Amino acid sequence: MEHPADFQLLEAxxxxxxxxxxxxxxRSLGDAPDRLRGALGGRRPSVFDLKQVGRCDTSGAYAVxxxxxxxxxxxxxxxxxxxxxxxxxxxxxKEAPPPPRGTPWNRFLVRLGRGLVNVGWDVYETLAFNGRIxxxxxxxxxxxxxxxxxxxxxxxxxxxxxALPIVGVTSFFIGAVVGLLGAHMxxxxxxxxxxxxxxxxxxxxxxxIIITAVLLAGRSASSFAAEIGSMKMNQEIDAMRxxxxxxxxxxxxxxxxxxLFTIPLLxxxxxxxxxxxxxxxxxxxLGLSPDFFLQRIVDEVGAKQFFIGLSKxxxxxxxxxxIGCRQGMEVGGDVESLGRRVxxxxxxxxxxxxxxxxxxxxxxxxxxx
Length: 369
What we know:
The protein is built from 12 helices and 4 strands; from the N terminus they run E-E-H-E-H-E-H-H-H-H-H-H-H-H-H-H. By secondary structure, the chain is an alpha/beta fold. The protein has a 4-stranded mixed beta sheet. The longest helix is centred in the last third of the chain and has 40 residues. The chain is elongated and about 115 Å long. The termini are far apart. The relative contact order is 0.09.
């Protein structure tokens, strides 16, 4: 049971003594600190006696230090209470950090400089992460029995087969939208038939792999970052290192291989769904039969566009898995860090996908493909 904080002022031989009683904690302080300062009225007691205080926390210690500091009086208390008061006194004596100085332009330059330094560190940590991945891959290649097939197959099922419905449905509507726009715009020039080529090239070359990669960035990159990050928060990764298990072999490499296996399959499904969506729209709006649509895809578009789009899938898999796993490895010990890293995994993965696709487009254009 807590006793409310109280005090009494004792005068003897012309000396004033402040004797504190009760529990000086945040729950039982009440208005005792204000009453104490009011009762002192600027007078300086010879001593603050805390020997009869039951419990004392930082709130009570701060109240006592504040009252004793104004009067500059010594404090007598039990050893544990003295240590707490000494700790609070040192914290109170520290000066507050000075306010930021300089013009807004200077502060902007400071923030810009810090951002560039952080980018440099991020590049360095990315290279270090890639080096560890290559080292783990080299060890597995030298001894294939070290490869973990069970988690790889489980992750491939979760990242690949479970994503088939959303990839297929999204690609179907993307193909339908491309076909709708193509049929509407090309009809103005009497070139409706070229809507087939528009759907074929757009879906097979770009949209199938882009939609697949972006959806996996939202599903798999965030999942990888959250799983590895939560394991790091719970010190499971440290326990793995203590037991002699390499986290890169046990956690990162299976996720890389799972996406390498599944993204080509998902890209193929996305291409079929996108073509089917475009075919339905072209058939409904322009009256071009499915046989005509498929024959024109074979004759005018060909398999080259599909293989161009499929060639991007290994790079996308490496980027998505690498970003997700790396952000998970960077998680600190708090939930805020976990949420921040999961968000960064998705944002960085989508940005990298768009950038890599643009690089591929320039390379293929220079190669006349």
